[in-house]
Amino acid sequence: RRSRWVRWLLAGQLLTGPLLLPVAAQTAPQLSPAAQVRSVGDTLYPTLGQAGLDAVHYDVHLTVTQPGTRALSGDVNVTLRARRSLPLVSLDFLGPAVTVALWNGQPVPFRQDHAAGKLLILRALPAGQEARVTLRYAGVAGVLPDPVFPFTLGWQAVPDPVNVGGGANFAFSEPDGARTFLPVNDHPSDPATFTVTLTVPPGTTAVASGERVLVTDTPDTPDTPGAHTVTFDQKQPIPTYALAVHLGPLDAVDSPGVPVGAGGTLVARRDYFPPGTTDAVRAPYRRTGEILKALSDWFGPYPFATYGSAVVTARLPALETATLSTMPVTSSSERVIVHETAHQWFGNRVTLRDWSDVWLNEGFATYAELLWTEHQGQDGQVLADAWYATLQRRGTRPLTATTQGEMFDSSAYQRGALALHALRRQAGDDAFRTFLRGYAQGGAAAPSAAPERAAQVVGTDDLLDYTRRTLGEQAARVLRDWVQSSVLPPAP
Ligand code: ARG
Ligand code: ZN
Hints:
Blueprint: H1 11-16, H2 22-26, E1 53-63, E2 71-82, E3 89-92, E4 98-103, E5 106-107, E6 110-113, E7 118-121, E8 130-140, E9 144-145, E10 152-158, E11 168-172, E12 192-200, E13 205-208, E14 211-217, E15 228-238, E16 245-248, E17 251-258, E18 267-273, H3 279-282, H4 288-299, E19 306-312, E20 324-328, H5 334-343, E21 351-352, H6 359-375, H7 380-394, H8 410-427, H9 429-440, H10 451-454, E22 457-458, H11 460-471, H12 473-484
Parallel strand pairs: 1-12, 18-19, 19-20, 21-22
Antiparallel strand pairs: 1-2, 2-8, 3-7, 4-5, 4-8, 6-7, 9-10, 10-11, 11-16, 12-15, 13-16, 14-15, 17-18
Helix pairs in contact: 4-5, 4-6, 5-6, 6-7, 6-8, 7-8, 8-9, 8-12, 9-11, 11-12
């Protein structure tokens, strides 16, 4: 992969950009050659992330005093570990100006390059060592247009034109929008745990990925009269784009827990709806428990402690934010709920090594739609045939995406799903179920420099190896054809 690493050239930036802390910067340790600072080297997003940096945990405190606007303030503690010696630490950040940076509690020189979207912490981190970096900022969230679709990634603001209880904000970050409101190592190959604390005005409901652990009243300040604070703990590592944050005038609706966790433990169920959500929109969410059961039957235990959906009025796609899918009113169908629920296993538990492998997320989630159809007593083959016809009509490509524009196309979704259908036809239902369960448990991940994270990061090659190991040479050949062929393989 070394050949794909793109170097993020630091020297020019340091010489030409304004130094935010010129005095402190002079006392910074000598920087190693610029070429040693490099991004993760993603094929489609060559500037994201820092190679060798492991962001282990993000402890995030966001304060929003005016929901529905883009104003926010942040106090973020990132626990970082160096997989190799780093001459400095580079985070992705498009948010407001950072006013305070601390390294294990002590001030540290830093430089914020807004144009490059990088926040440089000018301190070396020796291989194997850990540091806690504190960053404080206040202002307006960054704006990042989606490269293909007509919307903005990252921090969303939904004003309240009809005055039904205040505006709302939420995160829609896939693939690289988390950096509009959080300083992050913004790449799915570096999943992390999160503690998210949200301080919001009275009457505003706030929720994030993970389990709710604490609700307190916040001491009044001129900015936050009557505010309250709530904390969520996401204990299993997830990719940065999958972090859910929602705040607004939301109704929480609890449902009975579902015994789909490891060893049959109960998974808590709670959905969130904006004011005025009709019963027609709410109805399909009542099937979420049954969907969790049907999917865990194929995929194995649900990987998190809680699950639900947060419905939004904004015009966006649906997104599989961890433990709490983000569901536009217009996508509130059973099929889309099934799809986003499946991503909790495929995307959030098992994460991507490279964005060009995004079909691994979308193919498995789309295939879940067929499994649900069968669970309903309908013929899944009808759906598979329809996918095949779509691809014949629209044309198709090998599964590894070569441009950002291909990431969410019908090849990623329908061809990806048909590749799995072909494997199932080849292997039979029992072997296919074992294959899916092993993959969801991280069975395809190759060992790497970070063993504790390696079990969940995969690429297409890992899936091919895993297929050969578990289903045999013939099945691996079938999958390779679906992955690589420029024409559509025979209909499964
Ligand atoms: N992962 C989402 C889904 O299929 C799609 C997200 C599309 N993202 C985007 N930036 N266009 O469930
Ligand atoms: Zn999807």
